[in-house]
Design brief:
Blueprint: H1 3-6, E1 11-14, H2 21-31, H3 46-58, H4 67-73, H5 76-98, E2 116-118, H6 122-132, E3 137-142, H7 145-164, E4 175-177, E5 182-184, H8 191-212, E6 216-220, H9 221-226, H10 228-239, H11 248-251, H12 266-274, H13 276-281
Parallel strand pairs: 1-2, 1-3, 3-6
Antiparallel strand pairs: 4-5
Helix pairs in contact: 3-5, 4-6, 5-6, 6-8, 7-8
Length: 286
């Protein structure tokens, strides 16, 4: 990595899986923030996703079981050691991330446009990325925990049926998740399991955001859908990019009715009532 990149301030999107990270990337795209030429269907840069996977692997962690990464990377020496290998890996993968644009080959610091990447794993690997990019900024997107848990549980159930034909997994079942391209653990196949994962991700995201201060911005998924005319300009200002005079394209795909979807399902409403204390801790009601 050259000095221009080391001193850059990339936009790192963090937040729990199924929380609207892909929707946020769509908006960043339209605002002119470069989010990678090597993105897969979920809008994650393959280069950064693979590096994040390796960081978690080195910590004995997995996206659905991230806590060992939290504990290990709280040690500055461990984060610094991993950062050395990450710099080498990123230098080798940078051309794939940049693609034909070659945006990173400008002649001066000022030639670098706003850029970043999205990956929910960033939430737990951020201590390493802060070593690689000391001036990075984070966009933390948060969605109601019951909607996240329901979405994740449905997705796991669909993957299970597609892979095994079963509707209830055995205790030791592990399947390949083709949507993510990695092995998926059992955790998340029930609302309760998925909800505790959401709690861990939101807690970690807010902890990291608090440490960054003004270099962090939290976005509520529901606010993005219901009040985009307020949220999108705030996101643009944070990223240092202008808001287009015509905003119709920015609003495409933003359906207010998708906010708080759980309220239309009596079973999910009942589950929300059972975890109301945790929801309240993170600013949500039933």
């Amino acid at each position: 990595m050259d000095s221009r990149l080391r001193h850059a301030s990339p936009i790192v999107v963090i937040g729990m899986h199924r929380s609207g990270t892909r929707l946020l990337v769509d908006i960043l795209d339209k605002l002119g923030v470069f989010m990678g030429a090597d993105r897969q269907a979920d809008s994650e840069s393959v280069a950064f996703m693979l590096i994040n996977e390796e960081i978690l692997h080195q910590c004995g962690a997995f996206w659905s079981e991230p806590m060992s990464a939290h504990f290990l990377l709280a040690q500055p020496d461990a984060a610094a050691q991993l950062a050395e290998s990450v710099r080498e890996a990123l230098a080798a993968q940078l051309d794939k991330y940049a693609g034909p644009s070659g945006w990173h080959r400008g002649s001066s610091q000022g030639d670098l446009p706003a850029f970043g990447w999205k990956d929910p794993r960033n939430t737990f690997t951020l201590p390493v990325w802060k070593q690689v990019f000391p001036s990075l900024r984070t966009l933390h997107i948060v969605r109601h925990g019951v909607d996240v848990a329901a979405s994740l549980a449905r997705r796991h159930a669909e993957a299970l049926r597609a892979a095994t034909g079963e509707s209830i997994p055995s205790a030791l079942t592990v399947i390949r998740d083709h949507a993510l391209g990695v092995l998926s653990s059992r955790r998340g196949w029930t609302l309760a399991e998925a909800f505790t994962m959401w709690e861990q991700y939101v807690e970690k995201g807010r902890q990291e955001s608090a440490a960054l201060g003004e270099r962090a911005l939290e976005v509520r998924y529901e606010d993005l859908l219901m009040r985009p005319e307020q949220v999108i300009p705030a996101v643009a200002k944070f990223c240092g990019v202008p808001v287009p005079a015509r905003q119709e394209a920015l609003l495409d795909g933003l359906e207010a009715g998708r906010a708080f979807a759980f309220r239309r399902d009596p079973e999910l409403v009942a589950f929300a009532g059972s975890v109301r204390g945790v929801l309240a801790r993170y600013g949500y009601t039933t």
